[in-house]
Batch of 2 targets.
Target 1
Amino acid sequence: MSSPAVAPAHAGGEDAKSFLLSPRRRSGWQVGLLIAGVIALLLLPLVITSNYQMHLVNFVAIFAIVAFGLNFILGFTGQLSIAQAAFFGIGAYTSALMTVRLGVGFWIGLLAAGLVAFLVALVIGPLTRLRDIFFAVATLVFGEAVRLIAVNWVDFTNGPNGITGVPRASLFGYVFRTEFQFYYLILAVLVIQFILTVRLTRSRVGRAMVAIRFDETACTSLGIHVARYKTLAFAFACLFAGLAGSLYVHLVRFISPESLTFFRSVEIIVMVVVGGMGSLAGPYLGAAVVVLAPEYARVLNEYRIVVFSAAIIVMLLVAPRGLAGILDSVASGTTRAARAIVQRVRR
Amino acid sequence: MLIDVVIAGLTLGSIYALIGVAFVIVILATGFINFAQGDFMMAGAFLFLTLRGMDVPDLLAVPLIILLLAAAGGLMERVAVRPFWVKEYDPGKIIIITLAIGLLMSNLVLQAYGGRPLRVEPLFGGAAIGVVRAGPFAASFTQLMAMGTVALTMLLLAAFFKFSMTGVSLRAVMVDRDTAALMGVSIKRTVLLAFVIGAGFAGLAGMLIAPLTFARWNMGLIAIKAFAGATLGGLYSVRGAVAGCVLLGVLETLIAGFVSSAYRDAIVYGILIAVLLVRPEGLLAPRQAARVG
């Protein structure tokens, strides 16, 4: 009983068919859609009227980066990490401590945040050898340990009070003063992550990662170093969680252990599940819903976790492909209907 | 001082053992984890508080709550978990949905009872009896009762495993699911049974631990430590889990008493991560018994 799967682990038929994992080349309209999407995102601030709204959009974008990373490892190597908030926090603390205590510039803090998160992920990399459930528990425990260190190591992290007075982001003397200016900085990281991830999925490494998701034993027999690829995928996701943490801390200019609790990690999972596991657009939709919904419905804010956990349960049972899946079937339904009408008219 | 600490550790460890055993039964029988295990424990504590408030005698309340939670555990497996292992096996979704159910339970309790830790009087009028002394040993009635109840439960479990047909088939599934299925054991029924036992044990643990640690909406996190204990024991046998949990309970109280109470949990978590990194098959397990990797 070395393979403990109840049923044979013919993992994720849904994910395999999805756009993200699809081995076929990009078709023209997909590239068009992407370019249209990027232009829409670039022009988004034009339709936003208040600073507050822009602030919310920035939050959506920051958490979308973290959720996209989690979705990547979940969809690729099948690892569910319950520690993404901890890596976000590691990035945020690295950047905050370096800029406040050492007085280095923002961009060094940003790069260091990504690097430290990446290195920590590599150090706990052997955990990725564990089977799915044990990996999940191990990351949960790791996340709690990081939070406890942030709370208790008062000399270093200033304990529960957190770090205040984090400087604004600035690049080559240009200071990102407003929410509108900062938006483009976050957008840059988000787009870079998207492009790198898509490039990665279509490379040899990406194909190996997909193969791992389907059958680890077969991969090992083909000479694919399973543990190395899983660690790499995990560290890649954590790198961007760290970068997002740094962006967050320079936007809010404050970080405390509150931002790296278990519940934060769960919120990242909610984003992925509600948005749609294994889809490219899913994490973005999910991040928008999870960040914006409580802002516009006060009840949701009060019963935040209650509503979110209920949402996960309902989503998984009723619409396991999430919002992206719902949109997808609506879209294909409309296309089919349109095609039917066209055919009828022709006849 | 040392003796007191060790007795407190043994008490805590034996309560962990209840949850640790529940983890091991579910893991070996099903191949996945019920992440809501700790929250069933929390539910046990709060149901007990509520029934106390309604003047239900303990002797009636304790078995009632165990049955109630066992039924809830079974219901949960049937409705929310089964779709993700019968039709297609998807451990990720099982993890997420059990996690969500646990969060839903604990946050509903947070809304209903508030965030303050609530005091729970010892079971069976233990406060009146107080401390029992024997030479250099001193233990409160609550501690003795917790250890005694756990010991009794383990004996009952052993008898169940040995003498009842259902117990034997559960054990068979835990050892080798495929062969057991070929021999005519219903896997669906066995998985359901594992969840029922797990939730019942967790409920009992909640009622035993609440008088010692207070009842709190997020006390479910204690289950992480029970899991750590079971991992120390190797997650391959019920006996290993009991030994690991008791060991961890003693270790934890020693750390809190003599090293640092602020870092107690961080150290316990560190031990768990170290074990998973270095020897995922557990410290007490024979080398080849690895089932974790």
Note: Chain A touches chain B through 53 residues (CB under 8 Å).
Target 2
Amino acid sequence: MTFDEFVTARGLSLLRFAVMLTGDRDLALDVVQETMVRAQVRWQRISQTDRPELYVRRMITNEYLNWRRGSWFRRVLLRADAAPPGDGLRARVPDHAETAAERDELWTLLAGLPRQQRAALVLRYYEDLSDQQIADVLGCKVATVRAYISRALATLRESAVLTLRPRVHGSER
Amino acid sequence: MIDDEIRAAFARHEHLAPSVDELRSRLASRAAGRARPRPLASPLAAAAAVVAVTAAAVAVPALHAPHDASRAGGPAATAPARQPAAPGQPPARTFVLLGDSNVPGAPAQDDSVMLLHVARGGTRAYLIALPPELRVDGEGRCTQLGCVADRDPQAGVRQVVRLTGVPVDAAVTIRLPELVGAIDALGGIDVEVEEPFTSPLSDRTFPAGRQHLSGAEALDYTQQGWKPHPVGSVERAWRQQEVLAALLAAAHDKGVTADLDRLTGLLAVAGDGIDATAPLSTLASALLRYRNLVPHDVVAVRFPLQAQNNSPFVVLPGETDDLFAAVRQDAVPAYTARHPELVHRLVP
């Protein structure tokens, strides 16, 4: 499979994966773009692996986890940073430009998780990977993966959005 | 079950994914850029740093801070929301800029706090400085906005939202000392000094009128007021606005082009060890989105402030309610048309 054929066949799937990681359309496009630029350079080697797509997804995950910030600005505060869950600031000005998706509270809470925790959730619940596979992607131990997921689920449970619904304990895998 | 809810949340947002055609277009642009060797002259690299200051503020689109109109006597919470942008048109965005002029060894100063509103269409932008001496509550020992923003920028942004009722898309702290090298590489910047003054930090004299400043002089210019101001230190934010706009103008004059690949490369060079990873292309992408915004169209809106006798706090005048409502509704051009006396052009 050539690089172009790979982009055609799997591009949308990779972009969706990046949206799940970043929570943002534009950032997802940036992450995939940067990853694919590097993947193109070494495509001959990647294409010879057992599962090129898995390899590229690992690159995308690393790209997402390794973002760095420039020295001209030291802090970029996103919505989740500015309004930690439970601080009573979730009431928002109605904005007709927003889509229903943007109003999704659980989506907002996911965006507020630390990157490793969010990545672990995406790999488990969107990619359906096992803990061992997630550990391989994240480059950590299985126990660390379980800790990431456990903390993430605890954070989500504590949020208001989940207390509105019947609580089911012991539901995580 | 929480597992199902998470899966459902992911599934509901698959539609946010960009199209493969967009990805192909980006990749083609990068490939074309690599095919054309482009030396990165240092002034252009420095210009990119300037651009990044603006771009950083627009690098996180479609994120909205919450609104809490708890400000006593504050803006009407029922103001209509801004209209969506037309297809292909940059939407209206509002950002909080926290200006940090502190340098080691000098007396510490609180961060300046500004709103940057880019009107729908991306061709006009408005800078509104909030006095650091605005009173805030519930932030521990800090009772002034500048103090809160300096110690905890996240809390500072929350207070800005509370005070103004303006939903904020993102916030950025700009370290002005980091821009000294960029200003020098550009050959300096031009600012209009309104009143002559001598800097107590450097004994440098700034005559009135148009002055050409080096990087160190520009930093000095942003670090203090030209005289004890009756309503606090808001003029430090005004000066930071002038320097940032002048810097943007100089970068614009140097001809930083709207080329994604070139900008990304320039950002990497100017970033002092930052390589061309996702954040840099994010900045470049954001800049491209607002490429029709020229420095001349970035203006400051300065409202008259009221001091309270023997009080360390400053009170916002009543007309600011209309201004903040105009920001919420993306109707600032109409507001400035009604109040031309409040408009301060930053770049002639």
Note: DSSP finds twelve helices and twelve strands in chain B.
